[in-house]
Amino acid sequence: MTMLKKDYPATGDTLYIGTAANGLRIRVLPKKGFSGFYAVFATDYGGTYRRFRLDGRVHDTPAGVAHYLEHKMFDLPDGDNALTLLTRNGADPNAFTSSDVTCYYFHCTRLFEENLRMLLHFVSTPYFTAETVQKEQGIIGQEIHMGEDNPGNANYYQLLKMLYRHHPIREKVIGTVESIAEITAETLYACHAAFYTPKNMVLCVAGDVDPERIQAIAEEELPQEEKPVPEVLFGEAEDLLPAEQRRVLNMPVASPQFLIGAKLQPAEKGSALFRQQLTASLSMRLLAGPSSPFYNRLYSSGLLNRSFDADADFSTGVGTVILGGESRDPEAVLKALEEEVARIGREGLDGVLFERARRAGIGSALRSMEDFDDVCVSLALDEFDGFCYLDYPAVMASIEKRDCEAFLAEALQPERLALSVVKAGKE
Amino acid sequence: MELSRVEIRQGVWLTHLREDKFKTACFSVNLLSQLSRETASMNALIPFVLRRGTTGYPDMEALNARFEELYGTVIEPAVRRIGEVQCCGFYASFPEDDFLPSGESVLGDALGLTLEMLLSPRTRGGLFLPAYVDSERENLLDLIASRVNNKRAYAVTRCLEEMCCFEDFAVSRYGDEESCRSINYKKLSRHYKTLLQEAPIELFYCGRAPLSRVRQMLNALLATLPRGEINTDIGTDIRMNALEEQPRYTEEEMDVAQANLVIGWRLGECMEDPDFPALYVFNEMYGGSTSSRLFLNVREKLSLCYYASSILDVRKGLLLVSSGIQEKNYDTAKDEIFAQLEALRQGEITEEDLETAKASVISDLHSVPDTQGALESFFLAQAVTGADYGPRELAELVSEVTADRVRAIARSVECDQIYLLKALPPSEEGAEAAEPEEAVPEEGDKA
User: Fold this and answer.
1) Which residue of B has its CA nearest to A10?
2) Strands A257-264 and A231-232, how do they pair?
3) C-alpha neighbours within 13 Å on the C-beta side of residue B311
4) What tens digit of pLDDT does each residue of B352-376 get?
5) Distance in angstroms (rounded) separating the CA atoms of residues A70 and A64
6) DSSP state for residue B83 in the 8-state scheme
7) Strand ranges (DSSP E) for A236-339?
8) Of B17, B29, B34, the residue nearest B231 (C-alpha)
9) Does any CB of chain B come closer than 8 Å to the CB of residue A231?
10) How far is residue A274 CA from its own chain's centroid?
11) Cβ contacts (< 8 Å) between B296 and chain A: which residues?
12) Which pTM value belongs to this model?
């Protein structure tokens, strides 16, 4: 089957789009003149996908299975390890698990087709024994402890717990030492069978390659039959108010770190969701970005420093606005933010500022397209959300000032905001 | 890729890389100086103060607005150290003109603004504004203090500090708290003027504009750069041997869930005439990748950790291994880390191990020309150390490395320092308050 070719003149890219007979979606971004190749094989399965319905039965799984599975996928039945095999070929393989996706990827400068076959092969070949599953607990246990000592990570999960009442986004993707102790080889086989079907996956490649070859290789290496995709159950929809508005965690950090967050009502998957995501991002830039009056006023007064950032995070079924950084007085930052949102509500956004921010988007779009891993991972993730990352400049151009004003007025009302702080010492 | 290196003014060198495959271009300017406790914080602070405002764009809001007008140009402070050479300045990234609305061009404006930030700061009476210096000094103090936030990096830094306690290398790229605290606007203004006159300057450009055009622009923009006698006595002191016969041991306690073990070696006599290709292959084989001995044994075989990896500083002649472990496994982990080094010393290197490590190093080097950031770092390091080969030439040399050359490196290294960051002893009173919140119980059928 021939792939569809689509040109994106704003960034000078061409994307090849295909779907294999088994339902696997394939995206190829040819890049002339580069010596590296990058491939990511992603499944629409992450840390929050704990309860799902398949073949009429509801399954409940412990926290941390998606990530645990990711670790164990590299083991092959003949005692080999895919990480070792790929590295032996000079490739640089790795994987990550987020709240709503698991990605396996490699970068290499030679033997690309061989490496691609290996990637497709090991991700579609589950092999777990009681012994190998048990052994991984020590490694992941240490990864959990490493996360516990990371103040940014601790703060992020504290904020999510404050915002969300029951959505599984509250729980760490990696799970806990207790929850991963419940994971068995059977758990891993069941979740692999449910979520690692080609129809639930995307393969994305960048490099100096022939797109049709990629599709041919994928069809050769993967199971032919199309299997059903599970329905993930996240429970009833959350309301938009935080469960809790203030919390402080004590950890050894130099300056207090803060996160201000608010829940969003995510749009339906597809172009509406993409537009919402870009609107949220642009609105946050206008409210609190590098050239905003808010950021510069607080920076000058010493309330914020260069660690400050403001953006929106979307995962399946949830959207969260997050602003954060270091500050000696997080409460004062929150108060100033509420005042700024109120002021914009009264006066509207500055038109010049708005045009400038959109213009800056041209540079950021080009910059993000330079990075093979960024582009490929974004293409895969966005595919699961029903849109195409390369439409970024076009969608961005369609957003108007009043969209951003409406977003800020709605999403950032004081009763919607939660403030999570990590600081040294006891309360 | 077309590489040129030219001296455009006294002690001002431009590395120019003509490359058409990127959508953005990059430009960096770096002032080089000897890393020292007395000046490191001042050198580091300068680009942050300069980032606050220029004669044309008097505050950060105006500068950031200008960046946006220039289609999302980004110009940020870059503070690095390469061996014991401190490099301070700016790194700029901006869209290639071909992707802008027709007739638009940002190349000249982006280069111009970067050098305006370097050469024409907002001043009063010829001195930096006290408010800018004070606020950036406080930010830098916070940045220096924030090293404690990342436990793994903190442990590595602390090991280096202990290991190199009599050397400039113990000073971080941002300097230390004490010398930073003593900076004021007068002192910093004087230091800035001296630095502009004396520091060797490394410029780097990578993009579609030919050398002649970039050179012409830079000549005009650098016309006002005051130059005096250039300080060429800048370099790295390499100590071959460990300080004491037995490795020194330092431990520190902190409120942490995971202990961090760091072990430091001097690369030893092999640094007299460093075999760089073999050094890279040795590191890859020992702990530099997922097929390394440390990864396969300390992590995969013994399940002692999530990470156990080695890093090399070939400029300073150091090898470090860092691993996050449970404190009770300290001896097992340490013994295994030494045992794996011993295996390399004994020449336990199969043809397959060697080829795997070489392929991995070669692939990394071949990837350098694919990203501008990697190109810039590579060529800045080459310029600082006076080396003139590119990543492809280095990759060629790596392909010739033999097992004997790797073994020679393993035999040359000398352990100098062991550092352990460990948890506070449990206190009766504190135990309950320090307890993290309870895990949410899991229910329902397990799949």
Assistant:
1) B99
2) unpaired
3) 13
4) 999 999 999 999 999 999 999 999 9
5) 10
6) T
7) 246-250, 257-264, 309-315, 318-326
8) B34
9) no
10) 14
11) 84
12) 0.93
A99, A315 in Cβ contact below 8 A? yes
Asked if residue A139 has pLDDT above 70, the reply is yes
pLDDT tens per residue across span B89-118: 999 999 999 999 888 999 999 999 999 999
By annotation, the residues of A acting in catalysis are: 70
Domains of chain B: 2-221 (3.30.830.10), 248-423 (3.30.830.10)
Alpha-carbon gap, residue B326 to A141, rounded angstroms? 10
Nearest to B72 among A51, A65, A360 (CB): A360
Distance (Å, whole) CA A359 – CA B160: 45
Beta strands in A112-230 (DSSP E): 201-207
Chain-chain contact of A291 with B139 (C-beta, under 8 angstroms): no
What is the pLDDT confidence band of residue B437, given thresholds at 50, 70 and 90?
Answer: very low
Question: Contact at 8 Å (CB) between A162 and A418?
Answer: yes
- Of A112, A119, A42, give the one whose Cα is nearest residue A74: A119
B255-313 confidence digits (pLDDT tens): 998 999 999 999 999 999 999 999 999 999 999 988 899 999 988 888 888 889 999 99
Q: What angle do CA B276, B279, B285 make, to 5 degrees?
A: 145
B20 touches chain A (CB under 8 A): yes
Residue A42, H or E segment: strand A37-43
Residue at token pair 């290496």: A221
Domains of chain A in sequence order: 4-232 (3.30.830.10), 246-423 (3.30.830.10)
Chain B residues whose CB is inside 8 A of the A148 CB are: 257-258, 436
Q: What is the pLDDT of residues A356-409, one digit of tens each?
A: 998 998 888 899 888 899 999 999 999 999 999 999 989 999 999 999 999 999
Q: Does A150 touch chain B (CB under 8 A)?
A: yes
**Chain A interface test: which of B23, B133, B157 (most A C-beta within 10 Å):** B23
Are the C-beta atoms of A142 and A169 separated by less than 8 Å? no
The predicted-structure confidence for B112-167, as pLDDT tens digits, reads as follows 999 999 999 999 999 999 999 999 999 999 999 999 999 999 999 999 999 999 99
Q: Which of A232, A366, A396 has the highest number of chain B CBs within 10 A, making it the mutation to test binding with B? A: A366
Q: What is the Cα–Cα distance from A381 to A383, expressed in whole angstroms?
A: 5
The answer to whether the Cβ–Cβ distance between A146 and B150 falls below 8 Å is no
**Residue to test with chain B: of A142, A184, A350, most B Cβ within 10 A:** A142
Query: What is the DSSP track for A49-72?
Result: --EEEETTEEEE--TTHHHHHHHH
The 10s digit of each residue's pLDDT in B222-270 is: 999 999 999 999 999 999 999 999 999 999 999 998 999 999 999 999 9
- Specify the pairing of strand B85-95 against strand B24-34: antiparallel
Q: How far is CA A91 from the centre of its chain?
A: 24
| Largest distance between two CA atoms of chain A | 67
